[in-house]
Amino acid sequence: MHTRFRFRLIAAAAALCLLPVTSVMAQDAKPKVALVMKSLANEFFLTMENGAKAHQKAHAAEYVLITNGIKDETDTLSQIKLVEQMIVSRVNVLVIAPADSKALVPVLKKAVDAGILVVNIDNKLDDAALKEKGFTVPFVGPDNRKGAKLAGDFLAQQLKKGDQVGIIEGVSTTYNAQQRTLGFKDAMTAAGATVIGVQSGEWEIAPGNKVASAMLTANPNITALLCGNDNMAIGAISAIKAAGKTGKVRVIGYDNINAIQPMLADGRVLATVDQFGSQQAVFGIETVLKALAAKKTQAAFGGTVETKVLLVTKPAKS
Question: Which CATH architecture fits 32-141+277-307?
């Protein structure tokens, strides 16, 4: 009897070992959420990452967070490779701020085909490119055209009809750059100002400075520069100083990063737009976790969740 009992125990243990590890652990495993951002050299995306990490820390029992970013705003190929790495890592969820509205669509289709739920934040993916690949991705983020028009309308209060202004755009293939330019143009058209040109500053300080310098040289009567983000506004301010036009050329930014605050305070920047960068990834994460809990497939997961924007101007003196 003793021998037969030992044999049964050994057989039972062997059968347990043959069970797939995933089936034993499935009930206890937390979903892996990958946040793939643009340039972490940009303060806006560092703020986004910190906000996401703080949210995960407060909800550590609910999900695991993996964060990644690229070296600069135009490094689209590296971002595609990051997504491919997340597919291999078998994450459950992918929250992405795409560096390019079209170029990321094919690799995101691969992610969806691998069973990963994908949500789009910050820069909206191109609708036509998504349709061509036959899938949908929800967008969680602000109305960039509306936000830019808020800043443009504030600038317009200090302009006269016919005043010359320039627009320094982000990466021109990105939806949010295009929408901010349209918002700036909406405001300038309403004010009767003349847009002398739109050039890309690639979301970065140095390219923004170069574009601003060229605009100031080619258009000595320019009265304002509307910049698609605060990094480019910082570059524009340096160009204005170098041209000896501080106080003569107004500057508008977008993002309300910490580095722009002293320039708002002393008037070098007239206004910026807060799109609550620390919460943008959080909004996306919360949206996709709800979809995951509801066992939604990507096909049933679409639409737009609009988040808020706020005009930020020179702080009042205390």
Answer: 3-Layer(aba) Sandwich (3.40)
